[in-house]
């Protein structure tokens, strides 16, 4: 990996739904990602890197194709879509929120346009779940011509076998799976 590209941190779904106990999508293993996510976020802010908070948000009460596969979830204004404490966006120019209605942070959002306008060529993708939203985001980032990096410690799934298979696929086909330390060095 070339350390000179302009790099952005893309945090995916670091929201109450996954990280707060008793929420629908919470699973105990998710807590293991919090130290790595916090470290990535602190490093990105300290180095003035672009930080994108990609969060799933659906329109309240309206039809949504995704609801054919999953029950209604992550509707705007509900508690489960709020940022998990400590991961709220900072009041700084280089930190933004991208709402998404599908698994990928790129599909039907302006994320690719934003990244290109900021001369970003590499994205560090972290958050949940490895085999769903992380994979979809990584695949679309790769398809869009971005170098993709996924820090192993900063993602997981309630289906560990699928998370491992996904990380293997990402390393083989879409990008690089690295340690937290290696990812932070790229910011």
From TrEMBL:
Task: List the keywords (alphabetical).
Answer: Hydrolase
Q: Which GO terms describe its molecular function?
A: hydrolase activity
Cross-referenced InterPro entries: Isochorismatase-like_dom, Isochorismatase-like_hydrls, Isochorismatase-like_sf
Q: Which Gene3D superfamilies match?
A: Isochorismatase-like (3.40.50.850)
The Isochorismatase-like domain covers 7-181
- Which PANTHER family does the entry link to? ISOCHORISMATASE-LIKE DOMAIN-CONTAINING PROTEIN (PTHR43540:SF6), PEROXYUREIDOACRYLATE/UREIDOACRYLATE AMIDOHYDROLASE-RELATED (PTHR43540)
In Swiss-Prot or TrEMBL terms, this protein is called Cysteine hydrolase
Organism expressing this protein natively: Leucobacter insecticola
């Amino acid at each position: 990996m070339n350390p000179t590209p302009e790099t952005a941190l893309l945090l995916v779904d670091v929201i109450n739904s996954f990280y707060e106990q008793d929420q629908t999508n919470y699973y105990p293993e998710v807590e293991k990602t919090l130290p790595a996510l916090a470290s990535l976020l602190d490093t990105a802010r300290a180095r003035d890197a672009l930080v994108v908070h990609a969060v799933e948000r659906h329109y309240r009460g309206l039809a949504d194709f995704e609801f054919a596969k999953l029950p209604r979830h992550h509707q705007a204004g509900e508690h489960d879509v709020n940022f998990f404490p400590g991961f709220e966006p900072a009041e700084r120019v280089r930190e933004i929120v991208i709402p998404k209605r599908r698994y990928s942070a790129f599909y039907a959002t302006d994320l690719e346009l934003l990244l290109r306008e900021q001369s970003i060529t590499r994205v560090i993708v972290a958050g949940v779940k490895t085999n769903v939203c992380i994979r979809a985001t990584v695949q679309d980032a790769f398809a869009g011509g971005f170098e993709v990096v996924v820090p192993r410690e900063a993602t997981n799934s309630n289906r560990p076998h699928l998370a491992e298979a996904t990380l293997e696929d990402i390393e083989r086909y879409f990008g690089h799976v690295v340690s937290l330390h290696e990812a932070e060095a790229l910011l």
